[in-house]
Amino acid sequence: MIEIRPLWTRRTAWTSSAVQDRLRRLNLITVMPPLVLVGLVLVIFTSKTWWHVVIQVIGLLATMATAERWTAGDFIRVARPCLVLTAFVWLAGALSDKSAAFYGLAMVGSFLIPPLVRHRFAALVGLAALIGAIGATNLLVYDDKIGPRLIAYVVSPVLGAVLSTVFMFASQKFYDLVAEQEESREKDAELAVARERVRFASELHDIQGHTLHVVKLKVALAEKLLHRDLERAQEELREVHELVGETIVQTKELAYAQRRLNLSAELENAKNLFEAAGIHVRVDRLAEAGAGADELLGQVLRETTTNILRHAQARQVRITLTEKGISIVNDGAPDGETPVLSGLSTLRTRLADQGGELTVEQKDGRFVTAAAFPEKVAR
Fold first, then answer.
1. Which of 92, 117, 136, 262 holds its CA 20 to 30 A away from the CA of 191?
2. Which residues pair with 371 in a beta bridge?
3. Cα-flanking dihedrals φ and ψ of residue 18, to 5°?
4. In whole angstroms, what is the distance from residue 285 CA to residue 13 CA?
5. What secondary structure does DSSP assign to 32-50, as a single string?
6. Which residues contact 317 (CB under 8 A, 6 or more apart)?
7. Phi/psi of residue 154, each to 5°?
8. Tens-digit pLDDT profile for residues 318-362
């Protein structure tokens, strides 16, 4: 029994549906047009009768069906019956003096051999022997020009099958490398998001850890002073109350991306995160933002960075900082309507309160996030 390696099942297990779609489109673009073009050329320029056209078209359709299912990762159940069908097509071609009819059998066989776990060479030899044996039936029907017929119906088809199989081996290796690169890129993006979460947790710890430690000390002090110096104990408790209130405010600001940020630090952090995720980033700092806009621009940049890492399949990001605002452009945006991003919606309201404007646009696979401020804020 032929053992088939579950290559595409393995890919599906560690790549997202978006990556699968991109790989399939890549396969369709690179594999299907050459197969169809060569098949049509053989039909048009080598067919002598309507019967030749019929059998050649049948073989071409079987090849196209196998190739289409191969790009979808579900070709075994289609390729096997197509292999039998194209074998009969080649037999009909050999008996009716149609040397190009081997094309379908050679192509379908070349899709089946590379995924084999073992005995690939034996399978290739078997395919070549099958094609050669079927082609040799032409010599039993036509006894003229034995040499040319031997070349046309045995040697050339066998070489064609071997070359197409070698090409499919190379193609499979190429797509395996592409899939592995996508896997690595996804893991890098996940790692970048994890680092961002760690940074968030660190800031939260900085806010609450220090406060809780101080509160603990002040409560302990107030407890000791309760019976000795009531006024001092009350003062300590008032400070605890104020400190807790300030911490609540800072925690809310951190949770809603409202904590005061440094734009330069955020630019460096965004650059590091994108590079860690395997995304090429370009920063154009055409001018320095004014103090009034620095914090809000940093918040926009941080939120956009997180959105790109989580929701896009970006390969390139360009950040442009001007005197009046910032724009972040990334590719790899998913098709469809512009997604609703709650973090940016919150920031849009805050910018509007400051007289600024936050816009998002998705077009042709690119997503643009831009924040602009009037001159009085930017300067």
1. 262
2. 326, 358
3. -65, -40
4. 41
5. HHHHHHHHHHHHHHH--SH
6. 274, 279, 280, 281, 282, 308, 328, 329, 330
7. -125, -60
8. 999 988 899 999 998 877 666 666 667 777 887 888 888 888 888
